[in-house]
Write a structure and sequence with these properties.
Chain B: One of its GO terms (biological process) is SRP-dependent cotranslational protein targeting to membrane. Chain B: This is Signal recognition particle receptor FtsY. The complex is a heterodimer. By secondary structure, chain A is an alpha/beta fold. Helices cover 53% and strands 13% of the residues of chain A. In chain A, strands 3-2-4-1-5-6-7-8 form an eight-stranded mixed β-sheet, with helices on both faces. Chain B is elongated and about 65 Å long. Chain B starts with a helix and ends with a helix. Classes of the chains: A alpha/beta, B alpha/beta. The complex binds guanosine-5'-triphosphate (2 copies) and magnesium ion (2 copies). The site of one magnesium ion (MG) has 5 residues of chain B, from helix 7.
Chain lengths: 306, 327
């Protein structure tokens, strides 16, 4: 399971504090060193780690924590709160107000955009929406075919103009078509691109300016390493993202990208991909995820008992 | 002689076009990695703060905590041994250590000189397996070899069609079954067809799979077994495709795919981005699996045989040029 490795490391780093009746500043410092390594090994961006650790340390050595009856538990509580905050606090939903509402999927090559387009179409359909999928990737071999197969799997129509038209025109006509046929949501798939590819980023801006999307979702592979923040920052700077989808969380990644992306872009993670099949998409809940990482089920009860 | 000078000499022995390809492909990586090091090496003295800043940069390049510590420890030892005082001198030293780690062992392809060579391509989802097969097919065709592709990804939507487009693009045939059929059966047919047509190199695509999916890894083992049963000593190469953007999970990928299919090498893709692919260092050090190719883009010829010296040269190229101008 994703996060498992991180979870184990963090819990063992904090275990030494847990039962202690008295906790010194040195104890907190030692634990924070372990926390730092655990986060780095989980691919949390090193700058994010630095901020996180210093924030927790500062709060943890505060008088009300160390002087409390259960200082160990209190430190863990601080970690939990900061971790939740790092992931965005509370759940963020899609904001779909236009008629039709347009969602644009963007990201690096192979992140999972096309698959997520199919999954999200299915998810919205279950909520009684009538989505239209738009095949805006004219570059990758068989990208249109891939979306068409996904469309069949989730029983939704796919709009395409083949691979000879510009993605901007495809998006524009896709939205026009949706209006005409009474679709309330339009999901635009786009080709994968590097965040540093100026020409390709311009293309996304042109699509954005043409169809004025309600949501621009950055699709991020949860196994991404330290570069996740650069990627997210660039896409955000160029396009103004409204949310992030983390894919491939069904793997055994420690998931540091999840912990980093929100804090550098201030864009919430809205969904997570949990498999290759079209039903493997879930809304993201930061509180639950933080508690799961820290194995807080039992920790919270311990704090309550104390 | 500074190691920079040796690097420069060494790469000048290969074709200028290769050096150019490495340089332009790794431009962004170089700028962000070595650029970040400037502040380290322009410090006034070699001290703990310097090492710590360097550690952060290496960790920021996905080198991983353990390998970073080892690299920095080696630097410390060399600094003592060679009595270095000037932070500027650490740069060539670091490049030397990187080459040593990456070069350890060979990295050429193991091809069957008289008969069919089977190359199996494996990896997690979306890393660039199918694209790499297209590029490899092009590479070997350019060498005058007869190449065939087997569409072993029968699962992902549009995967077979994607490989067929690559086949068209580079002018090689593709053996395929229907979507949803047994991948081992496709590969089996691929081998029979390769034999019948006197093919030199059969490239086998497989579906992306996360290494913790036990069933899917069993399926891959079956494909591997079929190849071994049908062709003695095959697969001659089993290459794990790794996305350079991947973090520490790549180590896990290498470990588990190696257990399942006995990897012979790595293809590090998407090095044209800003990711530094530092995890390749950790894998080289801990698992001894060498990088054999690097992917530098989405086009047919954006694949280069990996060369540790070219690679490190491209990363440090600005400093190397500067040093040689000053002399
Ligand atoms: N295990 C798993 N695989 C996923 C998930 N999401 C996507 N994938 C797989 O990741 C691979 C890449 O997905 P795509 O949807 O083609 O990615 P993309 O971003 O559209 O790729 P490009 O268009 O080439 O940039 C495919 O093999 C998908 O099946 C997920 O949540 N879990
Ligand atoms: N920039 C860049 N993109 C690459 C490179 N190699 C592959 N890609 C892109 O990465 C995406 C995924 O490539 P694929 O070849 O479909 O990956 P795969 O591993 O076969 O994917 P699945 O079969 O879905 O697991 C495509 O958009 C490719 O064009 C590379 O070296 N550089
Ligand atoms: Mg796609
Ligand atoms: Mg593929």
């Amino acid at each position: 399971m994703a996060f498992e490795g991180l979870s184990e490391r963090l819990q063992s780093a904090l275990a030494k504090l847990r039962g202690k009746g008295k906790v010194s500043e040195a104890d907190v410092k030692a634990a924070m060193r372990e926390v730092r390594l655990a986060l780095l090994e989980a691919d949390v961006n090193y700058k994010v780690v630095k901020d996180f650790v210093s924030k927790v340390r500062e709060r943890a050595v505060g008088q009300e924590v160390l002087k409390s009856l259960t200082p160990g538990q209190q430190v863990i509580k601080v970690v939990n709160e900061e971790l939740t905050r790092l992931m965005g606090g509370t759940q963020s939903k899609l904001e779909l107000s236009s008629k039709p509402a347009v969602i644009m999927m963007v990201g690096l090559q192979g992140a999972g955009k096309t698959t997520t387009t199919g999954k999200l179409g299915r998810y919205l359909k279950k909520q009684n929406k009538r989505p239209l999928l738009v095949a805006g990737d004219v570059y990758r071999p068989a990208a249109i075919r891939q979306l068409e197969v996904l469309g069949e799997q989730v029983d939704l129509p796919v709009f395409s103009l083949g691979d000879k038209e510009s993605p901007v025109r495809i998006a524009e006509e896709g939205v026009a078509k949706a209006k005409e046929e009474g679709h309330d949501t339009v999901l635009v798939d786009t080709a994968g691109r590097l965040h540093i590819d100026g020409k390709m980023m311009e293309e996304l801006k042109a699509i954005k300016d043409t169809v004025r999307p309600d949501e621009i979702l950055l699709v991020v592979d949860a196994m991404t390493g330290q570069d996740a923040v650069n990627v997210a920052e660039s896409f955000n700077r160029e396009l103004g993202l409204t949310g992030v989808v983390l894919t491939k969380l069904d793997g055994d990644t420690r998931g540091g990208a999840a912990l980093s992306v929100k804090s550098v872009t201030d864009c919430p993670v809205k969904f997570v991909g949990m498999g290759e099949k079209v039903d493997a998409l879930e809304p993201f809940h930061p509180e639950r995820m933080a508690s799961r990482i820290l194995g807080m089920g039992d920790v919270l009860t311990l704090i309550e008992k104390a | 002689m500074s190691f920079f000078k040796r690097l420069k000499e060494s790469v000048s022995r290969t074709k200028e076009s290769v050096t150019q390809k490495f340089k332009s492909g790794l431009e962004k990586t170089s700028a962000s990695l070595v650029g970040a090091m400037d502040s380290v090496f322009s410090r006034s003295k070699i001290d703990e703060d310097l090492y710590e800043e360097l550690e952060d940069i290496l960790i920021g390049a996905d080198v991983g905590v353990n390998t970073t510590m080892e690299i920095v420890d080696r630097l410390r030892a060399e600094v003592k041994e060679r009595k270095l005082k000037n932070p500027e001198e650490l740069k060539p030293l670091l490049s030397e250590i990187l080459v040593e780690i990456l070069k350890d062992g060979g990295s050429g392809m193991n091809l069957n000189p008289d008969g069919l060579t089977v190359i199996l391509i494996v990896g997690v989802n979306g890393v660039g397996k199918t694209t790499t097969i297209g590029k490899l097919a092009h590479h070997y065709r350019e060498e005058g070899k007869k190449v065939l592709l087997a569409a072993g990804d029968t699962f992902r939507a549009g995967a077979i069609e994607q490989l067929e487009i690559w086949g068209d693009r580079v002018g090689v045939d593709v053996v395929r079954h229907q979507a949803g059929s047994d991948p081992a059966a496709v590969i089996f047919d691929g081998i029979q067809a390769a034999r019948a047509r006197g093919v030199d190199i059969l490239l086998c695509d497989t579906a992306g799979r996360l290494q913790n999916k036990v069933n899917l890894m069993e399926e891959l083992k079956k494909v591997h077994r079929v190849i071994g049963r049908e062709v003695p000593d095959a697969p001659h190469e089993t290459l794990l495709v790794l996305d350079a953007t991947t973090g520490q999970n790549a180590m896990q990928q290498a470990k588990i795919f190696d257990e399942a299919t006995n990897l012979s090498g790595i293809v590090l893709t998407k090095m044209d981005g800003t990711a530094k692919g530092g995890i390749a260092l950790a894998i080289r050090r801990e698992l001894k699996v060498p990088v054999k190719w690097i992917g530098l883009g989405e086009k047919t010829d954006d694949l280069q045989p990996f060369d540790a010296e070219q690679f490190v040269h491209a990363l440090f190229v600005e400093d190397i040029e500067k040093e040689s101008k000053e002399e």
